[in-house]
Structures are given as C-alpha cells and as structure tokens.
Amino acid sequence: MLKNLITLFFVLNAIFWGLATHSQHCNLASVFGLVNCPPHYIHLLMGVVSFVIAVYVQQRDYVNSLI
Asked: Which residues cross the membrane (predicted)?
C-alpha cells in the first residue's frame, strides 16, 4: 500500500512537471518563496526524474535482479 502511494506521488509529480507550462511552474515556485524561477528544462528534467523514480519503486525487484 505504501509503495503504491509513493508511486502515485511520483507519477503525479511527473505529470505536473512534464505537462504544466513554465508560468505555472514559476507560480508554484513563488508560493514557496523562490524569486528566481529556474529555466523550463529544469522543470522538464524534474518530471523525467520523478517518472524514473516511480518506475523504479514499482519495479525495484526486477531492476535489482539486473544489477
């Protein structure tokens, strides 16, 4: 159950960072007090990394068997 919740968090995170506009990302950053918004490619990279983490969490046993 916890594994599914963690995966859901990272998948939703990946969807936001991967599909939202740059202005939406910067608006969220300003809510947390960040004045300088990073370039859009950083946000896209965060989405890709979040998705990779979600896949790893769900497929950890298989990935570890490959190593």
From this structure: 39-57
Torsion of CA 24, 28, 30, 36, to 10 degrees: -60
Which residue segment(s) compose the domain that 39 sits in? 2-66
The tens digit of pLDDT for each residue in 1-55 reads 999 999 999 999 999 999 999 999 999 989 999 889 999 999 999 999 999 999 9
DSSP state of 36: S
Q: State how many domains the chain has.
A: 1
Q: What is the rounded distance in angstroms from the CA atom of residue 49 to the CA atom of residue 44?
A: 9
